[in-house]
Amino acid sequence: MKKTELKNLLKDKKVQNLTFLNKFWQTSFSKAEKEKLKLFIKAHSLKEKSHSPKIISLKLKLPLGTIQKWLNLTSIPYIAHYISYYSKIKQKRGMFLSINSTRGGMLKGPWIKIPDKIKKYDDIKKVINQLSQNEKAHLSFAYILGFMVGDAGKPANNRKNRVTRRIQVRLTTKHKTNEDLGNYVKFCLESLNLRINKTKNCPQGKRNTHDFYSWHSQCSQIIEWMFKVCLGLKENELTTYNSIKADWILKSPKQFKIKFLQGIADSDGYIDITQFRAGIVTKPNANFIKKIFDSLNIHSNIGNVHNKTLQQVKIRLEDANKLPLFNPEVSLYRHQLMKKIMKAKKLHYHWPKWLCEEINSYLKQNISSTEIIKNVLDKHNIIIRQGGIWKRRNKIKMNKKNLTVLGIESTAQF
Asked: Which strand (E) or helix (H) includes residue 387?
């Protein structure tokens, strides 16, 4: 900033009484830092009155070296940089944040206007339009929000005067399509003009047999804003345990809601091949996710899993395919399985003899119903119902029981 520009800004009443700081979202300064800024402003005011640095030093009871640096602008209080930021947004109404910052904590812009509370979708749309002119950016934003509710890590970077946040993605290499998922998250963030890099794989842990693909985004106030304002979470809350507060999503456009669900489902979704159901596993957000399905006219049920420590919101596989619940642009293994089931041949009548014999063979090996259904699907592109497997299992047991009663040892195939 030029000295003449600073000279004029220091005469601004909003600068003198520090109310100009209200234009910066979620920025808090200690009383000591504010007092230091007042001394900085006072030093320049005394210089305007032709006082020498030495006199100013005596009046303010500060080291002469500090005063000289302040007056020459070679070193200034940290909070004084906000006067420079203020010069860029002072003519605009509202509250602002900076997308980028340096490692030292200096804000670099671009500056965007944000609300500190979301009342309707249009509030979000205005922010997205400042982030990107890409007409599909709102869908990228929705997907990232959903992904933040799911698997994405959201560690905070606690600076002295404010908090920024980043997005971390770690996905098991067990499923090769997970690399496509991480790259899609990267695409969405970059379409919002946020930086993210793929890093070296993280090693496997004690409970994992595979290492992890890894991505890390930049730290940014906009990610912190998405966490606190868009999802309604407090600084110390976690999406794993705390429910989000984002009722505005319920009245957002249909495609926005679908993309939000896809972000969650690609993180925490599942397919139940035995029940022909798809859904999302969650602990705190089951009721909210059900409300989104309701708003899309899709019937859903909430059930308990893992000894009631988690909940799941499940829908018919046909509805999941039609929506679609899993993002077709990524086509994760879940999406591929869903499409495979929907395209598979359905047996509406009795099973052919060869299939009965194959099922009997699986049952004698004590293979689970889930694995039997997968084996038949993979080998023959046929989808069978769990109920049919149970009937065959019961028939085998019954026939064995009858033969035992008769005292006959048999090797007959049923």
From this structure: helix 386-406
Domain extent, residue 76, equals: 3-92
Q: How far apart are CA 192 and CA 404, in angstroms?
A: 70
Residue pair 363/393 in contact (Cβ under 8 Å)? The answer is yes
Do 176 and 64 share a structural domain? no
Residue 157's domain is classified under what CATH number?
3.10.28.10
Work out the burial of residue 389: count CB atoms within 10 Å of its CB; fewer than 13 is exposed, 13-18 middle, 19 or more buried: buried
In a domain, 118, yes or no: no
310 alpha-carbon distance from chain centroid: 19
* pLDDT tens per residue, range 31-89: 999 999 999 999 999 999 999 999 999 999 999 999 999 999 999 999 999 999 999 99
CA 284 to chain centre: 15
Residue 111 lies in a domain: no
Which one of 316, 337, 358 terminates a domain? 337
Strands (E) across 115-263 are located at 156-158, 163-165, 168-172, 196-202, 212-217
Burial of 381 (0-12, 13-18, 19+ CB in 10 A): exposed
Q: Quickly count: other Cβ atoms within 10 Å of residue 71's Cβ.
A: 17
The model's pTM is 0.90
Q: Are residues 357 and 333 in the same domain?
A: no
Q: In 3-state terms, what secondary structure has residue 297?
A: coil
Retrieve residue 22's tokens: 């209200």
Rounded to whole angstroms, how far apart are CA atoms 115 and 204?
A: 41
pLDDT at 326 over 90: yes
